[in-house]
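Q: What residues go here?
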């Protein structure tokens, strides 16, 4: 993946941001002059909303700073194909935008993310990071979680079988009458 020089990336992102009035405000809260992006959703965000997007996790929203982070051609192409206006149109058309708010766990958001990725891959096939045969991230996460559960089950079995069995000790001593006594 080609990393773009910071100066060149800043120029390209500024140009893309200026291409639409809606890109000059945070997609979530409409604060002016957003300095962050959700790359895989093609959204421009303010610092506070970018923090919320980071909490959603990268499977939902992959956040980058317009000026502080490094950018590669794939990220810039994603922002070129996306933008606040296109996202708003898509979410409105598919019923994910309610009271100007988006539930980012809604399946419509995942469809938009896939739609945007397909646009980027079609327009710029040389920037595709993931092979077409790779499982979706969610499926991969599920496979890893299942493997971890099975591993934990095996560890519990080993712990149960390795635990020593109770042993008895016999103590023999002589008492005053010179008779032997045993305790178990």
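A:
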């Amino acid at each position: 993946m080609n990393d773009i020089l910071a100066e060149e990336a800043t120029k390209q992102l500024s140009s893309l941001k200026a291409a639409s009035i809606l890109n000059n405000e945070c997609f979530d809260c409409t604060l002016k002059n957003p300095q962050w992006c959700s790359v895989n959703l093609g959204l421009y965000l303010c610092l506070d909303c970018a923090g919320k997007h980071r909490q959603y996790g990268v499977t939902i929203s992959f956040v980058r700073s317009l000026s502080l982070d490094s950018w590669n051609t794939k990220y810039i192409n994603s922002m070129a194909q996306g933008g606040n206006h296109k996202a708003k149109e898509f979410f409105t058309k598919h019923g994910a935008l309610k009271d100007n708010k988006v539930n980012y766990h809604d399946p419509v958001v995942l469809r938009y993310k896939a739609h945007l990725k397909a646009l980027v891959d079609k327009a710029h096939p040389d920037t595709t990071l993931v092979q077409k045969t790779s499982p979706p991230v969610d499926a991969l996460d599920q496979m890893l979680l299942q493997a971890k559960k099975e591993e934990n089950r095996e560890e519990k079995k080993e712990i149960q079988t390795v635990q020593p069995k109770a042993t008895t000790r016999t103590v023999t001593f002589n008492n005053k009458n010179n008779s032997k006594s045993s305790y178990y």
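A: Context that may help when evaluating the design: Residues 128-137 have pLDDT under 50 and may be disordered. The beta strands are 3-4, 36-38, 43-45, 63-65, 71-72, 97-98, 101-102, 171-174, 180-183.
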